Amino acid sequence: MTDPTAGPDDAVPAAPAPRRRLTAVLLAVIAIGLLAAGGGLAVALGIGRTDTPTADSVDAGFSRDMSRHHLQAVEMANLVLARTQDAEVRQLAFDISATQTNQVGRMQGWLALWGLPLSGRDVMSWMGGDAHAMHGMPDAAAAADGAVMPGMATETELAELRSLSGTELDVRFLQLMTRHHQGGLEMAQYGQAHATLAAVRTLARSIAETQTAETTTMETMLRARGGTPLPAP
Predict the structure, then answer these.
(1) How far apart are CA 31 and CA 107, in angstroms?
(2) How far is CA 66 from the centre of its chain?
(3) How far apart are CA 68 and CA 47, in angstroms?
(4) Which residue, 26, 108, 171, 195, has fewest beta-carbon neighbours within 10 Å?
């Protein structure tokens, strides 16, 4: 358990510049490997051998938008992983970073195999209807500040997270990540129900189940550290 009296001076020192550069290189290598693995797994499962998903399909839209949603979670998790003094929070951050980096590699590998771009098109338009009228969509101000999909943190919130240390850092991370998981749930459930390819439906189901379980865990951890959840998106 983190010392609740810990302040900014008690934060773990930032890694030296050479170490940070090495970490960045390693993450890049891992990302490339996962991208290749995603494509290889897709071939093994038969993805791309029959009808290739189009850019506006549920399969492509889910892979594209969930990747973007996941990447922000990885960013937050890596930030906290390097700075928290709380062993339980560190383990959670590691699990989220590792799991979602792997999933991003798979989804972007599929997009590459299908010959589709990794970004573009209106977010969540593949879910049908007016995406911006859907439950939990950020308002215009939040979207302009980087929160383009339900549950995503704004750039202002990310800057605040970077400024914190000790228990304040842990609490804010748990608040933002809980809301982030809640925001991605509807997208995962829609992908599970409507994607054409079995591999995409399976991944969407896994994301929905894992993030629902992690949300319950994080809410418990948050209250144990004197915090309360943010309003659900």
Answers:
(1) 12
(2) 8
(3) 21
(4) 26
- Residue 217, token pair as written in the block: 């865990």
Kindly report the CATH number assigned to the domain that includes residue 181. 1.20.1260.10
In a domain, 133, yes or no: no
Contact 203, 213 (CB under 8 A): no
The amino acid occupying position 70 is H
Give domain status of residue 45, yes or no.
Answer: no
Q: Give the structural domain span for 213.
A: 56-122+140-233
Residue appearing with tokens 């992983």: 81
Residues 43, 151: Cα–Cα separation, whole Å: 33
**Is 69:207 a contact under the CB 8 Å cutoff?**
no
d(CA 135, CA 147): 14
What are the pLDDT digits (tens) for 41-54? 544 444 545 589 99
Q: What's CA 191's distance to the chain center, in Å?
A: 16
Please report whether residue 7 resides in a domain: no
Residue 179 near residue 233, CB atoms below 8 Å: yes
Report the domain count for the chain: 1
Tokens linked to 135: 């439950």
pLDDT digits (tens, 9 = 90+) for 28-84: 545 555 555 555 554 444 454 558 999 999 999 999 999 999 999 999 999 999 999
| CB-neighbour burial class of residue 29 (10 A; exposed 0-12, middle 13-18, buried 19+) | exposed
Q: Which residues contact 46 (CB under 8 A, 6 or more apart)?
A: none
